[in-house]
Amino acid sequence: MLRETASQTAGPYVHIGLALAAAGNPVRDEEIWNEMAKPDAEGEHIEVVGTVIDGNGDLVRDAFLEAWQADAAGNYQSDYDLSKPFNGFGRTATTFDHGSEWSLTTIKPGAVKHPSGQPMAPHINLAVFARGVNVHLQTRLYFDDEAAANAQCPVLTRIESPTRRQTLIAKREEVDGKVRYRLDIRLQGEGETVFFDF
């Protein structure tokens, strides 16, 4: 029987292997990156942006994030194919440029059914890898213009504190006529983002 090995902190190798552009390296012809939806993808096209902030309130400029979400109809896709208009999996990273923001170009996901049968509010699942984080952190991004769905979501409402729930709600913005949602992820301290154990 094999023993469990220790987790490793995320370091520069994550960017070198998985975020080539963020590491300043040439990109591959086929790359899983932050464009999850092409212009012809069905659904409301959005951009999602944010920062990662450590316990001292400083920007984490070398964090790596993975995102997965349902399509506009609320269905998860089981296969990844760069030729498709939409893929429900993407990667992004914070960098030392552009305010250390991560970003995703995607579509607003539809409601997904919880195993209980109740619909979950539209959301994007996020995994955060960063220096000093031994095991990646799991969180979610919900949308502030989905208040009715958020209030009924069987996952979001399991968080007892309304203040803590707000750490998962992305704020809608309009920039140059395009819809954008902003979520800043706080790893520790005041306003710490809710992280899930799943």
TrEMBL record:
Family named by the database record: Belongs to the intradiol ring-cleavage dioxygenase family.
Intradiol ring-cleavage dioxygenases domain location: 29-189
This protein's UniProt keywords: Dioxygenase, Oxidoreductase
Classification via Pfam families: Dioxygenase_C
SUPFAM superfamilies, sorted: Aromatic compound dioxygenase (SSF49482)
Molecular function as annotated in GO: ferric iron binding; protocatechuate 3,4-dioxygenase activity
Keyword Repressor recorded: no
Oxidoreductase as UniProt keyword: yes
Highest taxon of the lineage: Bacteria
Protein name as annotated: Protocatechuate 3,4-dioxygenase
NCBIfam families per the UniProt record, alphabetical: protocat_alph
Species the sequence originates in: Halomonas campaniensis
